[in-house]
Amino acid sequence: MQLSLGELRERLHGKLGGDGIGLLATLLALLALGLGFIELSDEVHERETQHFDERVLLALRQPGNPEEPLGPLWLAEAARDVTALGSVSVLTLVVGAVGGFLILVRRWRTLALVVGSTLGGAVVNALLKSLFSRPRPTVVPHLTSVLTESFPSGHAMLSAIVYLTLGALLAQLVERRWLQAYLVGVALTLTLLIGLTRVYLGVHYPTDVLGGWMAGLGWALLSAVVARAVRRRSPGLREEARGDTAPS
């Protein structure tokens, strides 16, 4: 007997439930991101992406003058402003501000999840950079200063971790789906723009940014799975997620 797609979906929903299907989708996304990152990092290590990476960077500069980026004069300054949103200093301020709010409303467990996800992601990024030790681009001059290795992009990875984690956290505080989609969409847009500015400013290859996005999204999803598991075992964390706690 053949089942239609709708009947199959209903049976899966009945066996797994809505939460089970969501968890399965998250795990499949994690698997895809992990395999994709491994494949990309192997290509980068073998320098098979080098020609493509350098062509993209050169395409973003004036022909015959790699010191001048394409676009109006204000665009490079705007790119530096946007890229700062993914810097360690700005992300630390953002996490600190959110952490202060969580302390004021006494959401200690949520605070631990946010700080743990952020610090853990920063450590993983540092380890990956040290492992691959890819030099920064030299085919074009840098339009902003850099200090660490190139792959994966720390700005792309850490902005994905911080903004997506905070976007998902805020989305739990609203019930309407369009508001949830808006919050997650803003987080995704910020992450996308920050990564693109790293390429435009010549401080990262496109594959650095792609690797950072993949690793950051994967870490954010892994943190969500861990938070879900902890929440199921912690009545206090479930109360915090529902907003049942309040300052005394």
Automatic annotation (TrEMBL):
Transmembrane feature ranges: 21-38, 82-104, 111-132, 152-174, 181-201, 213-230
InterPro entries, A to Z: PAP2/HPO (IPR000326), PAP2/HPO_sf (IPR036938)
Pfam families reported in the protein's UniProt record: PAP2 (PF01569)
Superkingdom to which the source organism belongs: Bacteria
Record keywords: Membrane, Transmembrane, Transmembrane helix
Domain Phosphatidic acid phosphatase type 2/haloperoxidase: 110-224
PANTHER family: AT30094P, SPHINGOSINE-1-PHOSPHATE PHOSPHOHYDROLASE
Name under which the protein is recorded: Phosphatase PAP2 family protein
Species this chain originates from: Archangium minus
